[in-house]
Amino acid sequence: MAPYRGGWALMFRLVNVQRTQVIEGEAEVTVASFKRVGEQAVRHFTRLTLERDSVAFFPLAWTLVHPITEESPLRQVTPEGLSAAETKVMVSIRGLDDAVYDAMRARTSYQTGEIRWHERFSDLYVRRPGCPVTIDVRRLSGTVPTGKGTTA
């Protein structure tokens, strides 16, 4: 969760570790949390709107961005509020392997404690003179602090 274009955004970074390109990539991010309905706690699922939920091809890296806007279900959330609601963020990726045109899928989920606040992703691209740009997969989850401020 980091500052983004004058506001805030929840972001996830993906890399393609395949030797082939992934084409027709699609991403979906869903937030699951408990909400009180009378005396019961009911699990509630909300799909987040992504800045870009598909790419024609995914050769190196892709950062999924959910801008926190007035319409976002995450507006005015805090780490404590997400924790109290036992929030889980689920990410699903689909695409086609360009070499064999076979479907590829990947899923992961994040508990509230795994969401980093006031941090942005560090650079993962490796640039060398005379060589194509590559990525260093070891930097995938690397972040740097953005400074404290108000949350989304």
From TrEMBL:
Localization: Membrane
Principal subcellular localization: membrane
Record domain Inward rectifier potassium channel C-terminal: where: 9-143
Domain of life: Bacteria
Keyword match Membrane: yes
Any single Pfam family the record assigns to this protein: IRK_C
Signal peptide from the UniProt entry: none
Keywords: Ion channel, Ion transport, Membrane, Potassium, Potassium transport, Transmembrane, Transmembrane helix, Transport, Voltage-gated channel
Protein name: Inward rectifier potassium channel C-terminal domain-containing protein
Gene source species: Deinococcus navajonensis
Lineage: Bacteria, Thermotogati, Deinococcota, Deinococci, Deinococcales
